[in-house]
Amino acid sequence: MEFKVKDISLAPRGRMQIEWAERHMPVLMEIRRDFEKRKPLKGIRVGAVLHVTKETAVLVRTLVTGGAEVYLAASNPLSTQDDVAAALAEEGIHVYAWRGETTDEYFWAIDIVARSEPHIVVDDGGDLHAHLHSKLPDIASRVRGGTEETTTGVIRLKAMEREGVLKYPVIAVNNALTKYLFDNRYGTGQSTIDGIMRATNILLAGKTVVVAGYGWVGRGIAMRARGMGATVIVTEVDPIKALEAAMDGFIVMPMREAAKIGDIFITATGNINVIRKEHFELMKDGAILANAGHFNVEVSVRDLEELAVSKREVRPYVTEYVLSNGKRLYLLAEGRLVNLVAAEGHPSEVMDMSFANQALSIEYLVRTDGLKPAVYNVPLEIDRRVAELKLKTMGIEIDRLTPEQEEYLRKWQL
Prior knowledge:
By secondary structure, the protein is α/β, with parallel strands linked by helices. 47% of the residues lie in helices and 17% in strands. The protein has 18 helices and 15 strands. Strands 9-8-7-10-11-14-13-12 form an 8-stranded mixed β-sheet, sandwiched between helices. Helix 10 (216-227) links the parallel strand 7 and strand 8. The N and C termini lie far apart (69 Å).
């Protein structure tokens, strides 16, 4: 099967969406022009499990321009933009993604990508890496290298490295400065609020928003919620991050206390059961629950189901759970990534840097021999190149060190 999408006739609309993204991703387009001349990925098969959005399509087109053959599946059953998937399929990309996949269909598509025997593996969340290692170890042993886009995926890969089971080198694109300082903070901060507002149409001003986790994603969400006029509470398990949140001016308290007063709850931890039965029972009638972490495990849907006497969809992507005491709780996007299910994900401008890191990291893996199976950070020269290109496309110039300043920084003597 060359591809499987919802409806191939959606391709013309998808092409327009991709063209719109390309206009707002100048760094990746600059890399594409370079790839077109050099063809650094000629003969390379790339297996990718990513959110199939217009921004991802710009990356895929760039890899193909560089000479790669690409197999693509979705990294979330509800994040695929069907028109974009159709457009890619029409262009000859082996894409297996449609919005609303069942769990079995989701893993079927990942298996198709894995069985393409990719030279390079590109993942968002770690499901493709895990599938290769657990189900297809022979194919995994022939992979030249991989990349990982998310905090959640890097955590899983680090665990594989610690246990000595990782079979190929992986570049943690998520750890690039030009990724997490911008994509995680500004991209997720804006798109999470966008998803909540599209799903609910509520007013944030005057609400109490509880943000679980104060990593770069949590920072961005808290910052944007405060900017919309909300009172923001942060919950944390890391004392350093909790202290930082307090000094950034946010209220910090345990979830069991925040549960009593929050109007909107947003998880961004990468962990499981962050909001669970003991918290649901304390919440106010009408509390809204949303997740910005990669997997739908941070808000315990199982506990909600057990507590509820009834449930219904009251708006697209809004499920009302009625508890035995009559209290109503509202879960957004089935507990999945609210910014990609109820909205369009990150703005193209910020994904420009993230996917520029992906493209250059893939090229680095292709041309670099001798990397042992381990998790590596993006080389600093790639990070700096992406930043320089982004500044250039924004029309921003910066100072350069003078020879005298460079010499001064090399010396230690007084």
